[in-house]
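Subject: two folds for Thursday's group meeting

Dear M.,

Sorry for the delay on this. The cluster queue was jammed most of the week, so I only got both jobs back this morning. I'm pasting them in the order they finished. Each block is the input sequence followed by the predicted structure tokens. Could you check whether the formatting survives your parser before we put anything on slides? The first protein is the one we discussed after the seminar.
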Amino acid sequence: MAGRNAVRAYLLQAAERQEQVEVTIERHWVVGPTILAAWHAGYVQRSDRARVRLAGFMTMELADDNRIARFREWWHRRETPATR
């Protein structure tokens, strides 16, 4: 994914599929132009009301103009079906 429009399209598509989104950055580290962060997130899928929880880690490297030059992310996903 590269550019503002690609990021915007990604976020808009996610917003169509998810609600009650919560994100928590548990811990972060900054070393020069590199940012590392451990995070947790959760949301409800609009399609079937299942609850999704994620635990992940991300790295970002900033360019000289302080924009993100490189972004990588890893996560584990757990889904709980909606109770009826």
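Second protein, same layout:
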Amino acid sequence: MSFDTLGLSAEIFRAVRDQGYTKPTPIQSQCIPAILARRDIMAAAQTGTGKTAGFTLPMLQQLIAHMPSGRRAVRALVLTPTRELAAQVAESVATYGRYTPLKSAVIFGGVNINPQIQALRRGVDILVATPGRLLDHVGQKTLDLSKVEILVLDEADRMLDMGFIRDIRRILALLPKRRQNLLFSATFSNDIKALACEFLRSPQSIEAAPRNTASELVAQRIHPVDRERKRELLSFLIGSGNWRQVLVFTRTKHGANRLAEQLMRDGITAVAIHGNKSQGARTKALADFKKGAVRVLVATDIAARGLDIDQLPHVVNFELPNVAEDYVHRIGRTGRAGNEGEAISLVCVDEHRLLRDIERLLKRDIVKAIVPGYEPDPSIRPEPISNGRNKPRASGPGTRRAGRPDETTGHVAARPRGGEYRRRPQRDRPRASARG
């Protein structure tokens, strides 16, 4: 199958061809015909599979096929969990829709709301948004959702993990009853299935690859090392391998800052990106990394989904994630769009249980290789894994600390009521600086 056989318009096919794509990925070849047939879909889509184009291309096709007269209104709404993913999806919409008359915009928190208000006033056909900022606009009456024809929930599992379920239900109540619904999720938990039952109508189930599996194009390797020698080993690997572009993951914001500073002292250009950084700083850090101005981007799990970096060769887990599924999303930043990649994890004695959780999820062992000169000291005993506040943090799925601000959105997890975490904004809504 090729893109020219999928029934896309000449304008959209031209934009696809400009990007050098001729053959759709498996998720695209299944999603595009189903969406063009106006089916609701529930798709299992791993990171790096091309799912964004899988819903963007047919969405554009449907909107240009029926262009209403009069003032523009939001006819397609794409909800994403993070600012970075929202920006990435909006960029794809603009890229593939460049030869069409459609107008798009993106809205998320952490930036001035006034330019977003101006963009909405000028008229928008396609809106990409994070749930919190979307509701801020609704509260200020700067956004009308009564004309939405297509709703996309991207990374739905991540949105539920971040406590957006109540915001999503509020948004669903604002939309027309008659619309097409597209849900994309890396996992189909019971919560996701329950949400799907609330708004999907006889959805077509699409699964292009087994869930929670890493791309076969990503070479995975574990380097056992003492916790106090991780930074030294990382600098050695970057220098000896002459790595020019490396995405490194830490667990905490403080840890990301500290590691970036240490790498700079080692003569390796590095910058940190996390939820405490302003949106402008995060955007600049990512742009500098993409163009090669810095060699190392040190990130918390805010970057595990939503970062699309062409041909990124190396991902390093400086610290293993507390939740095994996040490992798959982290290393999914490399090995994208048919390119090979390398994912290395520096594992100390504290992280052996986390490693077992990851290997159990992957259903296989990851290759271990001790780097000469960095052999672990067998006399070192494991210590509790800190959450950045000198308190041990539990590992395993679903472990979140109540009362701590969310890494990406600035929400604070309240105590559970009836088994479900509530989220409240750190700032009262609908102030212009409200969360994303």
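Two things I noticed about the second structure. Residues 388-436 have pLDDT under 50 and may be disordered. The two ends are 39 Å apart (CA to CA).

Cheers,
T.
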